[in-house]
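Input set for joint prediction.
Command: fold jointly, output tokens.
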Amino acid sequence: MSIQRRQFIKAAGLGAIGSAVAAPAIAQSAPEIKWRLTSSFPKSLDTIYGAAETFSRMVAEMTDNKFQIQSFAGGEVVPALQALDAVQNGTVEACHTAMYYYWGKDPTFAFGTAVPFGLNSRQEDAWMYQGGGIDLFNDFLKSYNVYGLPGGNTGCQMGGWFRKEISGVDDLKGLKMRIGGFAGTVLQKLGVVPQQVAGGDIYPALEKGTIDAAEWVGPYDDEKLGFHKVAPIYHFPGWWEGGAMLHFGFNIAKFNELPKSYQSIVRNAAAFANTDMQAKYDARNPGALKKLVAEGTKLRPFPQPVMDACYKAAQEVYAETAAKNANFKKVHDIYMAFRNDQYQWWQVAEYNYDNFMVRARPWQ
Amino acid sequence: MSIQRRQFIKAAGLGAIGSAVAAPAIAQSAPEIKWRLTSSFPKSLDTIYGAAETFSRMVAEMTDNKFQIQSFAGGEVVPALQALDAVQNGTVEACHTAMYYYWGKDPTFAFGTAVPFGLNSRQEDAWMYQGGGIDLFNDFLKSYNVYGLPGGNTGCQMGGWFRKEISGVDDLKGLKMRIGGFAGTVLQKLGVVPQQVAGGDIYPALEKGTIDAAEWVGPYDDEKLGFHKVAPIYHFPGWWEGGAMLHFGFNIAKFNELPKSYQSIVRNAAAFANTDMQAKYDARNPGALKKLVAEGTKLRPFPQPVMDACYKAAQEVYAETAAKNANFKKVHDIYMAFRNDQYQWWQVAEYNYDNFMVRARPWQ
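tokens >
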């Protein structure tokens, strides 16, 4: 917190307000405020990290630079995977993170980012903005002292890089794959041995054969790390991230102290960054894909029996988790009902249109 | 223009600035401004019309109600299809419209909304926000004295309501269909006789058989008008609107007079409304689809030979139009190259993910 901010709050005599919907108690309509935002990402992931910068830039522009939010890469202020904790305890006012990183605290966090065989990117927006998702997820986040807003999306991710092609379910047995969280738990049921490997260590591990496979993001991010040179099979789709949504997280008390106009500015800037980040991935992935294919990458869909087995294993993990965790069950049931309705409609116009366009494209 | 606004401009001694990127010359950082926005839509299309209200609400919230934009339904201030003209000549400061309504002035306008076999909704965002689309389209709009920003999307529309099923290309010959603009021109090549029928007149025309078919939007809007009761065949997809993007249009001089912070607020509010409107359609279409099917609607894909013939006819119209219009050719070539790259990538992860999910859904 900056000096200006501390003085300001002291002058206004404010404490924590406690509820995300409370009316702001600040009289001054356009105060000077400086916040810090900790990202869970390195600057090298320019598309994801860039969403935090876009957000900050928009907030600054809209307030004539009165409200400034400085963003820090993962590790600069707090470790990458403690971004939420830092907001919860007030070390920083804001974070930009993937909620499923906190799956270990409570698996319900996963619904904020992506769950196996979940919504695609556009459907996640529908759920969040118009399907009650933002409110439902914040009911859950409240006990962590965090108010969350959608903050970008990667779109459907790739299934990752494999030294050998996966031809059937048996090929998963004993496979050492760099994959975590919910997806790792599902794949364990099929014999995969999930590995925790930091981004910078994946390449040498794949090269030496310490691991057999690794998932990262998609063409634009993956190409920069050069995985295709040591593991040429690029499987798809990443069924554990049909759309991976990022979140901005705000300390609830700090958010409530903002003037109402600034709260709205934060909501609009977050929504702008949310759309802009997906647009950036969509605009950049095609060029990276071409480059990867030109350099020998072999694109391979996961075989249908593998997809079916993973789907079945995911249902088992959902059932087991829901039986143990009421938060999870509540959000799961609402989310999955929404997903089923979404795909019932999606299969009509959207899917058939894309189907035709995918086949028509080579005519060009 | 409100009295406050006129006095304000008079006091500041401002004229039109002339370029959308000029620095604002207003000293007062948060002036009181009242604008009028004319929509091309009736309030009954609550999802589309609602995007203008969402935009205005966000601008008001972010400025502590200092910048108020009152929205009017089509016909309240100017006729629905003259919204762009009203902004061009300064009758109102802003509009919310579909740019392809102005196809008669110049077919290049169509790229602002949808063109046959064009980008889907998410790809349109990618093109606009990160593919140079906003700048390219504004290069074109400049001569109309309008600055445009994406302002919502319907997603892929349906192919419309047919009294009899289209089983092959021959069924298009002599078909009297309520369809306009670019799509009508394409369908004419296959023998369709395009009809101009206002929204409120479609139902009786279908009932009496004055027309054989009519396209409108998709389940949520169509169900309200009851077309399924008189024309039970619901064909898909609406290949002429793979994603129909709306636009906010602003009088360039009026936009340039805004303080820079207000310009940014307008950009962010427009982006919010853009995403929120698509989310609203996505959230509401599934329920409407269920209702339509329960009431006897027969969902039918256009047969593959019909899609192929329409694609071929569209290429002919593109070639003919590009040969006559340099604006059109310039935007067409950039847009189609972007589209081809988009679908090359889309067919990998996104399409395969949706494909699996569409098939997995009935398991629930």
